[in-house]
Amino acid sequence: MITLYTIINWLLIFSYWLLIACVTLRILMKRRAVPSAMAWLLVIYILPLVGIIIYLLLGELNIGKRRYERNKAVCPSINQWIDNLKCCQQIFSTANSEVARSLFQLCAHRQGISGLRGNKIQLLTNTYETMKSLIRDISLAQRNIEIVFYIWQAGGVVDKVAEALMAAARRGVFCRLMLDSAGCVHFFCSPYPAMMRNAGVKVVEVLHVSILCVFLRRMDLRQHRKMVLIDNYISYTGSMNMVDPRYFKQKAGVGQWIDMMTRMEGPITMVMGIIYSRDWEIETGQRIQPPAENIIPFEYSNSNNTVQVIASGPGFPEGVIHQALLTAIYAAREELIITTPYLVPSDDLLHAICTAAQRGVKVQIIIPLDNDSLLVRWASRSFLSELLEAGVLIHQFEGGLLHTKSVLVDSQLSLVGTVNLDMRSLWLNFEITLVIDAKDFGSDLARVQEDYIAHSRLIDVIVWSKRPYWQRIIERLCYFLSPLL
After folding, report:
1. Which of 101, 170, 255, 340 has CB 3.0 to 4.6 Å from 421, enough for a Cys bridge?
2. Same domain, 19 and 70
3. Are strands 393-397 and 144-149 parallel, antiparallel or unpaired?
4. Residue 20: its pLDDT value, please?
């Protein structure tokens, strides 16, 4: 005789396998890379129930219903803002160098705006010099300051930046500050948010980390941009978080973080302002009106550089930064230099890099010797053999955690910004990258990369091939998780 217990047991088993089948079908129906799909299938089959929960939390890009509706609502305003900017024909470039032409065509078609000329660009490689410059510009601001960072950690020189921002707000400058909830968890537990708000700074905690939001949106989606915009004319972006390297993650044992920022004056700041305004409205529901007049830098109108800014994340063109990197790599004819703290590329990027080396391009990749993420470090190692066999020169930086994200193609085309060479940056997070077509800037970036190489250890192919077998096993295990990192 069949007991109630038996019926319930069979119902639970049936429900479990039905759930497995439904999630499997959903993974297969989603348009995603095969390695990513295979990795998720392994997770849900190897980790019963736990794997399904992980997939429901992290497997799909879900920004939440409210943000999705706000993103739809802001589109007409953003398009109108871009159309108004296009009326200023003198700020748009009509020609690019041969190596940059395809990339700028891609950006123009996918983002609806061409590269801009008339910008003054300065490369900043010392965190403290960057902070001093930032404090000076904030102190001279007259109208508005917009800031977004993934990490803001109080202490050291960062407190002087905070003081300058609060002083600006007190004298009537309109100040907005967006900070990622996960990256700034210590900041939001400090007195600074209240102090800033009391001074008049609008402080917004972006993408709240909360147990109540777990099933409403994807929790590992992060606001990873780093931008400072001042008076619609001066802007900063790059890899640097708002931290003092002397105090940041000192217990991690990787040394001080080494970063790169760019300071710009000119119309590129207007485009970055459009990106910021979209992020602000998606998060807060409040609309930032475009400036009454377009800021045209006549004194730099003849500068021989062209700049494009690429933004990614929900609501922005899907995969555009990934496409930009592929286009830049395939355009290389002589030399390709890449710096990244996290090297977990997609199969397409790995193939493009190896192909560049195999067709005679001198390809060099600079990564930190020590990394703050153990899983990423081992996953990264799994790609090194294939790169080395293709002829890629891989340098391990020994002067700290090299956090700079940069690509230099033929000393002419530069990409600098917030994007790591991992799946999270390429397909998930809110990121920003500058594309700069300028020989002078390329020369400056090349000198910085040469300095990185001078403080690095070149990986020997023969020595690498003789590493212990247990290390290879760990590398391969972590490799299976690489599409999810």
Report:
1. 340
2. no
3. unpaired
4. 81
Q: Are residues 27 and 69 in the same domain?
A: no
Query: In angstroms, how far is CA 337 from the centroid of its own chain?
Result: 18
> How far is CA 96 from each of CA 102, 103, 117, 417, rounded to the nearest angstrom?
9, 10, 11, 21
Q: Note whether 328 and 469 are same-domain residues.
A: yes
| Active site residues per annotation | 224, 226, 231, 403, 405, 410
Q: How many whole angstroms separate alpha carbon 396 and alpha carbon 402?
A: 9
Q: Are residues 440 and 374 in the same domain?
A: yes
The string of pLDDT tens digits covering residues 209-222 is 766 665 566 667 88
In contact, 424 and 485? CB cutoff 8 Å = yes
Work out how many domains the chain is built from and give that number: 3
Query: pTM here?
Result: 0.88
Same-domain status, 159 and 260: yes
Q: Among 412, 262, 415, which Cα is nearest to 338's?
A: 415
List pLDDT tens digits, range 343-400: 999 889 999 999 999 999 999 999 999 888 778 888 888 899 999 999 999 999 999 9
pLDDT digits (tens, 9 = 90+) for 418-444: 999 988 888 889 999 999 999 999 999
* Ramachandran quadrant class, 92 (left: phi over 0; alpha: psi -120 to 50; beta: rest): beta
What integer pLDDT is reported at residue 12 of this predicted model? 78
Show the beta-strand stretches assigned E in 100-207: 120-124, 144-149, 174-180, 202-206
Residue appearing with tokens 């290879």: 472
Looking at the DSSP bridge assignments, the partners of residue 123 are 262
Cα–Cα distance list, 73 to 77, 175, 195, 282 (Å): 8, 24, 33, 9
Nearest to 336 by CA among 362, 317, 306: 362
- Residue 123, SS3? strand
Task: For residues 111 and 455, give the distance between their C-alpha atoms in angstroms, rounded to a whole number.
Answer: 38
Tokens of 359: 């067709």
**Angstrom distances, CA of residue 15 to CA of 6, 49, 205, 215, 448:** 14, 11, 39, 20, 58
